[in-house]
Design brief:
It is built from 4 helices and 5 strands, in the order H-E-E-E-H-H-H-E-E. The protein has 160 residues and is an alpha+beta fold. Strands 1-2-3 form a 3-stranded antiparallel β-sheet, with helices on one face. It has a two-stranded antiparallel ribbon with strand order 4-5. Helix 2 runs antiparallel to helix 3 and helix 3 packs antiparallel against helix 4. 16% of the residues are buried.
């Protein structure tokens, strides 16, 4: 019975999964990856803070720049907290075996809390980058007009 429940649960989860992210033409797309985050725009992949900075600062839009800066500050804060949490966890585990068990448990707890806070700031940084991408797409959406020629007909296509 447990195997059947497990198989049905896995089948349901697999049906909800998507293998690929759609990349709409003419729009900026943000792909969430562990490292680095990527932005795809006009068939170009932008990776890392240097390329993101060039992409957002050349617009001159203060809202986009502020959202990018919030992304950077939250990302750095999250990385620092995750590192400090890992160090505190290691130090706490090493202090458990001696007479300083109270200090060890305190370090483990604080390391765990720092890691949770670091994950929160990393999540918020991704949200700020997604907000910047959405604002960019709303403000700089390209509409195109094309002329199609056939053997006996002419057509106009408007993409928006």
């Amino acid at each position: 019975m447990r195997k059947l429940f497990f198989c049905l649960t896995m089948l349901f989860l697999l049906l909800q999964a998507n293998a690929q992210q759609a990349l709409p033409a003419g729009k900026m797309s943000y792909t969430i990856m562990t490292k680095p985050n990527n932005i795809i725009y006009n068939d170009t992949i932008f990776k890392g803070s240097v390329q993101f900075k060039q992409l957002f600062y050349r617009t001159g839009n203060p809202q986009l720049i502020q959202s990018y800066q919030l992304h950077q500050s939250n990302k750095i804060t999250g990385q620092v907290l995750n590192f400090a949490g890992a160090i505190a966890l290691i130090a706490g585990i090493s202090n458990l075996s001696g007479s300083t068990k109270g200090l060890g448990w305190s370090l483990i707890g604080s390391g765990f809390l720092a890691s949770i806070a670091g994950g929160y700031f990393a999540f918020k940084s991704q949200q700020h980058l997604m907000t910047a991408v959405d604002m960019f797409n709303q403000q700089y959406k390209k509409s195109t007009v094309s002329l199609g020629l056939g053997q006996q007909s002419v057509g106009v296509v408007y993409k928006f």
